[in-house]
Design a protein that fits this description.
With 95 residues, the protein is mainly α. It has three helices and two strands; from the N terminus they run H-H-H-E-E. The model has no long low-confidence stretch (mean pLDDT 90).
């Protein structure tokens, strides 16, 4: 798939992005490089490679989960910017 300036101009129009001619040229080259790289990756034979989540053989070190006493409520709330009774008070974000 070829990415030229016309495709980038069309995508910029759909995205409501204003691009200068120099930016169109640069972006079209960069996008073409990305598409070319993806095409190279598609040609790599990975049939013998097992799926992994990480390239190094690591494992998480977890501590034992045990119940402990928590901080007293007044100690927790003493640095709160605003509080409402025994709770943190935060500005409303959803109307």
């Amino acid at each position: 798939m070829a990415i030229d300036k016309e495709i980038v101009k069309y995508l910029a129009h759909l995205s409501r992005i204003k691009l200068e001619p120099k930016e169109l040229e640069k972006l079209s080259r960069q996008l073409q490089d990305i598409v070319d790289f993806i095409d190279k990756l598609k040609k790599v034979d990975i049939s013998e490679i097992e799926p992994t989540s990480h390239i190094l053989p690591i494992s998480n070190v977890l501590r034992e989960d045990s119940a402990r006493t928590s901080l007293p409520r007044d100690k927790v709330l003493e640095n709160a910017p605003q509080r409402h009774g025994d709770f943190f008070s935060v500005p409303r974000v959803i109307e």
